[in-house]
Amino acid sequence: MHVTTTARHFTLESPERSHAQERLDRLTKFLVWGRNRVQSDELHLIVTAEKHGYTAEVTLRVGRRELVSREQADEARVAIDLAASKLEERLRRLKDRAVDHRRTEHVRIADEPSDGARPDAEEPFDWLDGQPAED
Asked: In the predicted model, is pLDDT for residue 37 greater than 80?
């Protein structure tokens, strides 16, 4: 995945850039849902030096959604790690929702009885045998 990195008010050194690239490359495992790979080609990292620390902002465009995470820390590397962890958690939840949504069984209204009652509701059921109970 291509990571666009921007440093504001300071210069982000090569070791921090490579660390950010490696850390954000781990997000690709959440972009494969089943057999499908989600199209995501925009990942932008903005690290800003402020008066009392650094702020890291990671923006990832997934389909029609844009996931953004911002974190502050005393060091740039720590801020990047915190923002990446937060985005990783959001991606994991998004993936879980998408996968769970696909696995649910949908009941068509036409398949249900018109009176709203189940046809076998009056019939007792023996849970040990898995067969209707015999009187």
From this structure: no
pLDDT bin (cut points 50, 70, 90) of residue 129 is low
**Model pTM score:** 0.70
Q: Give the CATH number, domain containing residue 37.
A: 3.30.160.100
| Residue 105 Rama label (left phi>0; alpha psi -120 to 50; beta) | beta
- Domain with 48, as residue range(s), is 2-97
Q: How does DSSP classify residue 3? A: E
Which residues of the chain form beta strands (DSSP E)?
3-8, 32-33, 36-37, 42-50, 53-62, 65-73, 125-126, 131-132
Q: Is residue 112 part of a domain?
A: no
**95: its two tokens:** 């993936």
Outline where DSSP puts E strands in 9-130. Answer: 32-33, 36-37, 42-50, 53-62, 65-73, 125-126
Task: Return left, alpha or beta for 114; rule: phi > 0 is left, psi -120 to 50 is alpha, else beta.
Answer: alpha
9: tokens are: 């008010």
131 within domain boundaries: no
